Each structure stands twice: as structure tokens, then as C-alpha cells.
């Protein structure tokens, strides 16, 4: 998934928690919780939503890394890139 698609998905996930979110008003480098005034439960629901949509584990210890939209995108892109290894090719011998 490219960064633009990932950004769209993240913003859509934010809108599920805070429908008033306007993409054009978000600054990628500002703290997300301040930008859209999310309380701790909203933030947790946002993180859980990302996990469910992307099937990416986000340990609680990593929550502090997810400060800005850029940080969320960087984190998710790295986690998606480091996904589970693919299965080895099947043997061609009978």
C-alpha cells in the first residue's frame, strides 16, 4: 500500500471516531490528539481500528510513538513492510 492510500485509510479511521475531522485542516507534523481533541478512549479506539483494518499489531508500548499523522504513517508503513514472511515456494519434485 502506498503512503497516499495509507493516509486515506488512517484519516478514514479517524473519522469513524471523530466524524468532524477535516483532512485539509490536519497538519501532518502536529500531535493528532491535540489536532482533533481525542480523549484517551477515542485514541484507543482509533488504534484498535487501525489494527483491525490493517491487521498490524500495535503494542501498547508503541502508542507513544504515534504522536503525529506522519508518525502514524511511518510506523504503519514499517510494520506492514515487516509483515510475516511469505511461504516458501512448493517443491516441484514428485
Automatic annotation (TrEMBL):
<feature type="domain" description="Carrier">
    <location>
        <begin position="5"/>
        <end position="80"/>
    </location>
</feature>
<dbReference type="Pfam" id="PF00550">
    <property type="entry name" value="PP-binding"/>
</dbReference>
<dbReference type="InterPro" id="IPR036736">
    <property type="entry name" value="ACP-like_sf"/>
</dbReference>
<dbReference type="InterPro" id="IPR009081">
    <property type="entry name" value="PP-bd_ACP"/>
</dbReference>
<protein>
    <submittedName>
        <fullName>Acyl carrier protein</fullName>
    </submittedName>
</protein>
